């Protein structure tokens, strides 16, 4: 645990008393922030999710996700999809869907294979990032299509009302890829330092928490191989305040 002490005593090998001064005792730290600000974290896939409400066509949405090291979301299991449906995504007045029914571009495309009596086809993953992605059921065809269109883009519809969200009610749409829509990006969890900066893989950083003297290595979005520094109390100052975000930085409060 953390403690403030002026001095502590311990016995050396020769029986002599050794005296040393310390301010903090190293302690385990719980790391809570694994996503950038504005993203939602899901532990089951170690991923971060964010809905962009500014309407873009499918191809522009793909590029917007890529600019933030993400891709249009695909899902690996029902539990992950239920997590998405349960979130209260922030709604703005200027949105391209009604407030009770929201549709987002996601990382699937519907390939049309037959146009005889009815449209036939199959879903494919637009982003080849995972071999464990599940494919949606048969879609609802959202709008009239020309005969030249052989590929439609996937939209996930979720609902604003809490009761509907609680039961996981949702629909899948195959839509013209050039329609404008909100979209859902997904990225791997990342390291976030004590000043809310995103840290790249392999770099040293101080995780968010209550110990600014902790230095860790970012590995797969997690702090690893952490080392704690212990600070000597400031000399010649009776009353002082520690800086919560700078290691071994103090403000003297003496008159």
UniProtKB/TrEMBL annotation:
GO terms for cellular component: membrane. Pfam families: Lectin_C. Residues 44-186 form the C-type lectin domain. Gene3D superfamilies: Mannose-Binding Protein A, subunit A. SUPFAM superfamilies: C-type lectin-like. Coiled coil: none annotated. This is IDD protein.
């Amino acid at each position: 645990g953390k403690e403030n002490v002026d001095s502590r005593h311990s016995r050396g090998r020769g029986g002599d008393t050794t005296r040393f001064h310390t301010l903090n005792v190293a302690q385990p730290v719980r790391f809570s922030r694994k996503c950038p600000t504005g993203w939602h974290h899901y532990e089951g896939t170690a991923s971060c999710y964010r809905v962009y409400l500014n309407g873009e066509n499918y191809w522009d949405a793909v590029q917007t996700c890529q600019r933030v090291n993400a891709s249009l979301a695909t899902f690996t299991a029902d539990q992950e999809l239920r997590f998405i449906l349960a979130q209260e995504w922030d709604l703005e007045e200027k949105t391209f869907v009604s407030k009770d029914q929201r549709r987002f571009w996601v990382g699937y495309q519907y390939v049309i294979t037959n146009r005889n009596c009815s449209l036939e086809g199959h879903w494919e993953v637009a982003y080849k990032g995972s071999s464990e992605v599940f494919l949606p059921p048969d879609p609802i065809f959202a709008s009239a299509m020309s005969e030249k269109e052989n590929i439609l883009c996937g939209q996930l519809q979720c609902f604003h009302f809490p009761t509907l969200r609680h039961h996981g009610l949702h629909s899948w749409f195959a839509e013209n890829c050039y329609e404008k829509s909100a979209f859902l990006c997904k990225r791997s969890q990342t390291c976030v330092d004590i000043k809310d900066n995103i840290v790249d893989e392999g770099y040293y950083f101080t995780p968010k928490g209550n110990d600014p003297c902790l230095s860790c290595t970012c590995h797969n979005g997690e702090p690893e191989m952490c080392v704690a520094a212990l600070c000597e109390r400031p000399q010649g100052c009776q009353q002082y305040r520690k800086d919560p975000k700078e290691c071994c930085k103090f403000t003297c409060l003496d008159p």
